[in-house]
Amino acid sequence: MGRQWRNWSGSLRFTPREQVAPADEDALRALVDRARRTSTKLRPVGAGHSSSALVRTDDVLVSLTGLERSVRRHEDPYLATVSAGEPLGELGEALYEAGLAMDNLGDVDVQTIAGATATGTHGTGLRFGNLSTQVAGVRLVTGTGEVLDVCAERNASLLPAVRLSLGALGVVTRMTLRLGPTYHLRRRSWCSSIAWTLEHLHQLQRQNRNMDFYWYPRTDTTQIRTLNLRDDEPAFTPAGEPRTTETGPSHRTIPRHRELRFDEIEYAIPSEAFHACFAEIRRRVLNRHRTGVAWRILVRTVAEDDIWLSTAYGRATTTIACIQNNSLPHREYFDDVEAVFRQHDGRPHWGKKHSLTARELRGLYPQWQRFADLRSRLDPDDVFLTPDLARLLRDE
């Protein structure tokens, strides 16, 4: 029996028969060939930050940490190819040294670039899509052992699928990112009332490069957070002096360091439905869960995209994340708020807690069948389709 694997929060623990970290694509292809011959499953894993069971397997867990780390520039100065197993924090430093930066990041940077994009990790800002929208090319080993390159010049029609694939189409080994020059941001935060925050939310979102807010159920107050280019501050701000101010390179300023571990449910809501959805979430939390909820609720925005399994596919999106300390029970709380999210056409974050299966998910994604057909073509023997992934992707 192998050693136990656990995710970042500790809520997901399992013992795969084998954990491997192939050093190159040849070793990875050999793993795929063995899996096909022995009818076993392979599941790629990143840093294990996800709360969901996407990577759980009884068979072989495949880490990308053994792949060579590199940043390869292209003739286009704002394209770079990187190792799929590169942690976002380390990748940010490597890109910074090369004079490059991603246009947006999520709230934490411990994930690998492949894991973050495969699950739809996102930051905030009306103009910015999730991290997958920055992917210009993907190289992966499919379920047949083929090495497949997908980019603007080759297999371009597959880009909307491979940019965010849940690891269901193959093991990604390299990614090409569309980048920009380095930039510095000023992060500021204010404490405010929930009434003022909701009344001025659209104005705050429009006038700031990045803006989100936390709502604190115990006090019914908010923390408003903004990020702007250091020479481009909006005239409109919350009242009073900022609670905190910090300025630095984007890759060091956008993510936050987290000491405490937590579990999370997050749904992506059509932006026009946000106020009604949030009002009902707030009502239920205050009336039913206030004494047991120790953490805050995070509200962010994500721009519309055309990625088949993206939670922002075809619509401007506002996300609501309910967070609970990992030492406290979360099931009753998460189940209750999930019912509200579903009433408002919400799509669950792939890497966080939710209860949906393929039966419910199919109706939320217009390109669902196209993704299913491609998955069957690239992985005809279901090498990557573990029971947990099958519940998400296959109607049974």
From TrEMBL:
Transmembrane segments: none
Keyword Oxidoreductase in annotation: yes
FAD-binding PCMH-type domain segment(s): 12-182
UniProt keyword terms in alphabetical order: Oxidoreductase
Name recorded for this polypeptide: FAD/FMN-containing dehydrogenase
Source species: Plantactinospora soyae
SUPFAM superfamilies with a match to the protein in the record: FAD-binding/transporter-associated domain-like
The UniProt record lists the keyword Thylakoid: no
GO molecular function: D-arabinono-1,4-lactone oxidase activity; FAD binding
Any one Gene Ontology cellular component term annotated for this protein: membrane
Region (Disordered): 232-252
